[in-house]
Automatic annotation (TrEMBL):
Domain of life assignment: Bacteria
Gene3D superfamilies: Bira Bifunctional Protein, Domain 2 (3.30.930.10)
Name of the molecule in the record: tRNA synthetase class II (G, H, P, S and T)
């Protein structure tokens, strides 16, 4: 029995199935679940109901949101085996040697894309709309490193659509929440403008980003970004025809948490997963 009261897997050590792929042991799993429960407090504070986003995103929909212009390196396509390969699979041919047929879908790289696409053509009204969701997200990275950078990870987001002022207030309250929770958990975070929302770092959008940042990240002492606040202006509202009543195209913003990265930050701060879980439980109570 560990110091946190969690029973270990007797005589078993969980191995990584491959780069960027990790199975969490019972203590780290409890830490992840508990952290997501704590982080979902922002949704409760802002009266953002919980929804569950789609498991796949259409290529056509993402293209309309400039995903491939901004993040050509991140997409993880979903494919299916061609019908002519099925007999080979059934007879024992190596699956990795057989061709895949595109499905026209990608695995989500962020939770908010599916939520935004689901609201296409809607009117969120003068009072706006908030929703919260946690989803498994996937990214094609140049390298993978522990819990800091994974093929697949959980992202908790609280999304706002409505007025320009409402979008700004959403981010202000979200940023305050991040620092408040970090303080309760014994985490020291630094806040800095990020340059990743636009892939073309030498173009006009990058210059606009430098003058008027739209994303700020909150990072642990080792540089791991564990949360961010993201201002979309009215980009998604215009592209998807989402209106905010008499205010015209909706402005949007979101607060995002990489839950596995919070697990990493807690272990970094407290020295072990057991002590991190004890600290989380004390903070949650």
């Amino acid at each position: 029995m560990s110091a946190s009261g969690m029973t270990a897997l007797p005589g078993i050590e969980l191995q990584s199935p491959g780069p960027g792929l990790i199975t969490l042991d019972p203590v780290r799993t409890a830490l992840l679940r508990g952290l997501d429960d704590l982080l979902s407090g922002l949704a409760a504070r802002l009266s953002a109901p919980e929804v569950l986003g789609p498991p796949l995103l259409s290529v056509e929909g993402l293209a309309r949101l400039d995903f491939f212009r901004n993040f050509p390196h991140l997409g993880v396509p979903a494919g299916r085996f061609a019908p002519e390969t099925l007999d080979g699979l059934a007879s024992g041919e190596a699956p990795q040697d057989l061709p895949l047929v595109p499905t026209g879908h990608l695995l989500p790289s962020a939770t908010c894309y599916g939520l935004l696409l689901s609201l296409e053509g809607q009117d969120v009204g003068d009072d706006g709309l908030r929703v919260s969701a946690v989803g498994r997200c996937f990214r094609n990275e140049t390298h993978y490193e522990g819990l800091r950078r994974l093929w697949g990870f959980h992202m908790r987001e609280v999304l706002y659509l409505g007025t320009k002022d409402g979008a700004g207030e959403h981010l202000e309250r979200g940023g305050e929440f991040v620092q408040e929770v970090a303080g309760r958990l014994g985490l020291t975070l630094t806040r800095a403008a990020a340059d990743d929302p636009f892939y073309d770092k030498g173009g006009s959008r990058a210059r606009l980003m430098a003058l008027d940042p739209v994303k700020f990240e909150y990072s642990a002492p080792d540089g791991t970004a564990i949360a961010s606040v993201n201002r979309h202006r009215n980009f998604f509202g215009e592209r998807l025809g989402i209106r905010a009543g008499s205010h015209g195209s909706a402005y949007s913003s979101c607060v995002a948490f990489g839950v596995e990265r919070w697990v990493h930050a807690m272990i970094l701060a407290h020295g072990s997963a057991d002590r991190a879980l004890d600290h989380l439980r004390a903070a949650a109570s």
